[in-house]
Amino acid sequence: MTTVPPPFDPELAAALELIRDMISPGMAPEDIETVRRSPGIALLAQVDLTAGGAFEVEDRTVPGAEGSPDISLLICRPTAPAPARPRPVVYHVHGGGMVLGTNRVGVDQVLDWALELDMVVVSVEYRLAPEHPYPAPVDDVYAGLLWTAEHAKELGGDPERIVVAGASAGGGLTAALALLLRDRGGPRPLGQVLLCPMLDDRNDTPSAHQMAGLGVWDRTANETGWTALLGELRGGPEVSPYAAPARAEDLSGLPPAFLDVGSAETFRDEVVAYASRIWQAGGVAELHVWPGGFHGFDGFAPQAAVSRAAREAQLRWLRRLLAE
Q: What is the pLDDT of residue 43?
């Protein structure tokens, strides 16, 4: 197996040069608290949630899972007159390697979808590892989805048209949420959007080895995140598929999935394998592997041609899904 990495897209390589002093690819456990306080994380959460007045914004505290604390939901509702049919809802799970972030991180991308497609946005705040290991994060995500489905009409949303979506750790938690909802007989999402999702705690794919020390999230950082979530169980035989969805033996009966990932990132091979296994189980999935893309490239370099193509593909898929 070669460890020579695929090349970065030239525009994305230039973007990496600009941010390399703010974001290092290899985060060790002792770095977590420093990274949480870093300017890069703060910048990711700085967004006009109203999108220039297009959304009414609310933070709402709702019950968590039984025996767990309450959780916070960021709710963004269009201010335009309500359509005849209740609006679709996108339920968003933020990224951050299981150890970083808030419900503001990454929501700018979801607000772009909502502006284009007239959707209600609900973004969940979940407890972070290592202070709150598995199952705390996915329990919070699950509880927030149940509340959203139950109260969708109150928000002007359609409980039958909820799309679950997340990037990176949020993508992994979104995939786990879809598995939990299937297995517990919960509300069935209309679809799941898994953007560069963090799916496999074993951290041993060819792409994980190829991209060591490169990009914005490498094998060292990945081990840090998964170990924070799972402790000594990481990589062993006892890991639940609701923690690491790549461990699921059965991927049948899931909502249609959109998956995308860069060719030059740690998660490439686990994402490709997950899409392939959905197809093998008789499911529906659309997979994009963007040439030269590093982890989260379209958020870090939105003006690059490959980033624009990725965002357009996401919107096309969502538009088709909502039209069905």
A: 67
